[in-house]
Amino acid sequence: MAKAKQKRPTRDEFELEDLGNQIVEAKDNKEQVLLTVWGFAEPVLGVIVELDPRKRQIRVDTEEGVRWIPFLDVMRLDNPRY
C-alpha cells in the first residue's frame, strides 16, 4: 500500500502576515537568515534577494547557489546571529 503524502501544516492569516513581514524586512536589510522549510531535511542559510509575488516564491542566495522557495513552504525565519 502506498504511503499517503504528508500535507503542509496550515497556518492562520496572522501567522502568514507576520512571516511575510519578517521576510520583507530581512530582504530590505540584506540580512543572512536561516529558513526552516517544509519538506527540506536541513534549514536553508542564505540572503533573501528577491520576492516573486506572481509565483509566490522567495529567491535565496546560499553558498551552494540560488534557491527558489515557495512562500507557503517557509515554516520559520531565524536570524543566525542571535
Which secondary structure elements does this structure contain, and how are they paired or packed?
Blueprint: H1 13-29, E1 32-37, E2 44-52, E3 57-62, E4 65-70, E5 74-78
Antiparallel strand pairs: 1-2, 1-5, 2-3, 3-4
Pfam family, one: YolD
Protein name: YolD-like family protein
Organism: Paenibacillus agricola
Short description:
This is YolD-like family protein. This protein has 82 residues and is of the alpha+beta class.
Write a structural description:
- By secondary structure, the protein is of the alpha+beta class.
- The protein contains one helix and five strands; from the N terminus they run αβββββ.
- Strands 4-3-2-1-5 form a five-stranded antiparallel beta sheet.
Helix content: 10-25%
SSE topology string: HEEEEE
Q: Total helix count?
A: 1
What fraction of the residues are assigned to beta strands by DSSP? 35-45%
Q: Quote the CATH topology.
A: SH3 type barrels
- Whole-number mean pLDDT: 91
CATH architecture: Roll
Number of domains: 1
Spatial strand order of the main sheet: 4-3-2-1-5
Structural class of the helices, strands and pairings? alpha+beta
Rg measurement, Å: 13 Å
Total beta strands: 5
Low-pLDDT runs: none
N- to C-terminal distance: 45 Å
Please give a handful of descriptors for the protein shown.
YolD, 82 residues, SH3 type barrels, globular, 5 strands, alpha+beta, single chain, YolD-like family protein
